[in-house]
Amino acid sequence: MIVVMKQGASQAQIAHVTERIKEMGLTPHVSQGQFRTVIGAIGEEAVAKQEMLRQIEGVEQVLQIMKPYKLCSREFHAEDTVIDIRGIKIGGTHCAVIGGPCTIEDLDMLQTIAKAVKKAGARILRGGAFKPRTSPYAFQGLGKQGLQMLCDVGKSLDMATITEVMDPRDVDLVAQHADILQIGARNMQNYNLLREVGQTNKPVMLKRGLAASIKEWLMSAEYIMSGGNHQVILCERGIRTFETETRFTLDISCIPVARIDSHLPVYVDPSHAAGRRDLIESMALAAIAAGAHGVMVEVHHCPDKALCDGPQALLPEQFQRLMDQIRQVAPVVGKTVE
């Protein structure tokens, strides 16, 4: 349930309500908006508890949250969440693009691509150090060595970084090297991993599972947020359908649905959805037009030699063109490119 405080409620009144919620065996989460403070009471609800909270001074109303996901629901937090990552804003009216290679192959390659995506205007560098591959014989990434390369290149170019974490045992290690932790589609319902990243203070990008409903996606976000980490970014990367012309089917409709139901920023990964270089630009622009807060695009200067997903990586000049187009489309839907 959520407790809506009266306009102008004092900090003492808010603290009192928070303490009473704890005494009831519930977990309080305070969300202070421009005009109202809302306190979420997460746990086993009861009508008697609601009635007791209604009697406290400063409380305007007590409402039951109808959605199964509480903390990521608009009922709990009406305003868009905006996450600040080294001065880069994600969410709200901001549009920030993520670019880089699918996997880190060596330092020279990473530096070359990073310089190209930064020159084009991207401020966040992606690069996989741990790679979940369908085949156990495919390149699995450079691990800790790759993390260090990503960290060093990001610092040298003043770019924020994002990379995937696959194992709960690696969360601390990845968090020491990257600015954003990515949960891949295949781990969307790895609840032990979600709980572990929920204990960190690093933003988490949560990719939608290959066959996950929007509700299941948001429930996975709830796992992270229930651990105390509210810096969650949702990412649509395509779902599995009967279509064979693309690697996956990009669900554009999930963008407005997720934004209506949740206050969390929504990103799109057109590279994994398309699986084809010639479709990525159109899909990225469609995502921005549909309300996405940004896109994450794979870029490689020599994709025919890439160790992972070369066919779905844009060349640097194509990425430059895409960035120019995003700068034109984003203002039309009320967003500013970071």
Write up what this structure looks like.
This protein is an alpha/beta fold and about 350 residues long. It folds into two domains: about 1-65, Phospho-2-dehydro-3-deoxyheptonate aldolase, domain 1 (Alpha-Beta Plaits); about 85-335, TIM Barrel (Alpha-Beta Barrel). It contains eleven helices and 16 strands. It has helices at about 10-25, 45-55, 105-120, 145-155, 170-175, 190-195, 215-225, 255-260, 270-275, 275-290, 315-330, and strands spanning about 1-5, 25-30, 35-40, 60-65, 85, 90, 95, 100, 125, 160-165, 180-185, 205, 230-235, 265-270, 295-300, 335. The strands form four sheets. An eight-stranded parallel β-barrel has the order 8-9-10-11-12-13-14-15, surrounded by seven helices. It has a four-stranded antiparallel β-sheet with strand order 2-3-1-4, covered by helices on one side. The longest helix has 14 residues, at about 105-120. The protein is elongated. The model has no long low-confidence stretch (mean pLDDT about 95).
